[in-house]
Amino acid sequence: MQDALGSVQSILVLGGTSDIAQATALELTRGGARRFVLAGRDVAGLDANAKELLAAGASQVDTRQFDAVDTYGHESFVREAFGVLGDVDLVLVAFGVLGDQERLDHDRQAAMDLIAVNYVGAVSVLYPVVEHMKEQGHGTICVLSTVAAERARRSNYVYGSSKAGLDWFCQGLGDALVGTGVHVMIVRPGMVRTRMTEGMEDVPLTVDPEDVAAAIREGLASGREIVWVPGPIRWVMSGLRHVPRALFRRLPV
Amino acid sequence: MDENIELLTGWGGTAPTATRVAEPHSPGDVREAIAEAPDRGLVARGLARSYGDAAQNAGGVVLRMTELAAVHDVDIEGAGVTVDAGVSLEQLMRLLVPLGLFPMVTPGTCQVTVGGAIAADVHGKNHHGVGSFCNHVEAFTLETPQGTRHVTPDRDPDVFWATAGGMGLTGVVTQARLRMKRIRTSRIRMDTERASDLDDAMSRMEQRDSDYHYSVAWIDVMARGSHMGRSVITRGDFAEPDELPTRMRSDPLGFKPSTVLTAPPWFPNGLLNKVSVRAFNELWFRKAPRHQEGAIVPLASFHHPLDFVHGWNRIYGTRGFLQYQFVVPYGPEGEAAVRTAVERLSAHGAPSFRAVLKRFGPGNPGHLSFPMPGWTLTLDVPAGMPGLAGLCDGLDEVVLEAGGRLYLAKESRAKPWVIHPMYPRLDEWREIRAKLDPGGVLRSDMARRLDLC
User: Fold this and answer.
1) What pLDDT sits at residue B280?
2) Residue A160 in this model has a pLDDT that exceeds 70
3) Which domain covers residue B323, as residue numbers?
4) Cβ of A4 and B58 within 8 Å?
5) Are A137 and B19 inside 8 Å of each other by CB?
6) Shortest CB distance from A181 goes to which of B58, B319, B322?
7) Which of A103, B24, B277, B359 counts the most CB atoms within 10 A of its CB?
């Protein structure tokens, strides 16, 4: 159960090898979380993260194969994960691919594959997650979006559009779930230094996975619906939203 | 039975969960609800004055007991009453104070049901003299998945004391017989004194508490430096008729409590901050007489001062608040723990405007009953206060090391591994519970969070 100050006890992580997911799992373990299911494609990577969580104080960490594009398997996957954890206080949706925009510009299949993971896969797995959480009468669904979902950019518009779709889906979902005890929290980080962004140059307001983790913990405590990381990027984005496109195209963002 | 899906919280307004709420109108309805309880179980809820998640049951059923509220028998001569579990102490007082009877134990609000008072084994300002609520319960009827039981402390001590403070997890109390206190007036003769700091307050209480039936100290936990822990100690007894001013003598047992204010439905977050609460506390301390004896005050303003403002919990804003209450045993370690707690709260600037210090007398045999001989400190803090989780976790350690415990009726955020060693008889309680409810029908959010059953 989530307590009065937002601490959670049991967590299902989708995308368990993601740097942000693991940093969040560790942060929440320090806050008292004890039971985890880490799910993803790379089982060896999940096992390594599981060891790290156990060393940090977790009492039970299961790892499970999960493929976002295997949408036929999502219902049974979610049923099993809830079966292992009992009550699930938090589902962290942290899987996703960034892709190489230059390739995506002309590779139709690559674009469809990316959307199949980031948007279709996420929406597909959220349906059974919502059903189980409504049944237990409580829980938080935390979805990793991005500031790139806020305004389309030349440099990552396929990724941005997939996250924008997910972001909007989750906003509506959150509203639909008011009164059910299930809460949806959308996290919109700016540039984060992770394996996914390796080799990319830092831009102003770049953060580390630990910063995202801390913001998620604070967001759980205050019951936020949208969490920006770092906080001030919210104001930057609300400014950028209104920059005319002809000018925005030329901005080095 | 009427049924509804509702989002429920405790009095602190934190951690809402969705539940099917049913309102039983008879013990038969309760039996039926238990028999038909879903997998996620059922728990009873009274007037929802538990601060945390004790009377919530996410995804399951909550029985709102307030419709089961008949008074069955009043024995004025024998000073006893038999009532349904949903009867509130306020209802009881309105009926019985004019007849010269008063609950032996009343907590700081009379908006609690008899069933809730048993489940939390509540205490009042007279704990040092008379113990807690269940010390004065002669019998109760308990509906369990294994059938109906008529329980008395002599005939069925295990079940009686597992239910006293058992947070509703041994069954649903439907009726109880209570011993009452005889009173001759509805007024309190109150003495007030100020203490300049915490040591002064503790030594004044130690010396003179036993002279009074009721005693409590309000502490300004925001005061710093040499004023740290400054307090206003109020103590008293029910007044005798000849102590009343002449105009009250014609109706010595008159009792007309009223809510004079209602808090608006919405308050801005952050209204209670360091500045506003510090100013309030300063005024509160200064308005109290330095030393006053024999003031005659209505019993409601002495016992239930906050009941004058309906819905006062809303002043904390949308994020709600929590109440932290612990007890530590008498002796140097316990006293050091109280001091450490007040020091840390004062250093943190926790905006608490109703911190209360009290001395407990002996505890009772309730397995999960809170009181034990020692000092109990209670305070409210807004849940949004920065650093609150760390502050509370640190205080938990201090309390645990001093051999103390937290009060489950107030609890909303502690970890199971902190609570379990605080209640060393938890395993004994679990065994009794397992016999009453082998299928685990009686469940609550608190039971899940603290891994109680």
Assistant:
1) 81
2) yes
3) 187-413
4) no
5) yes
6) B58
7) B24
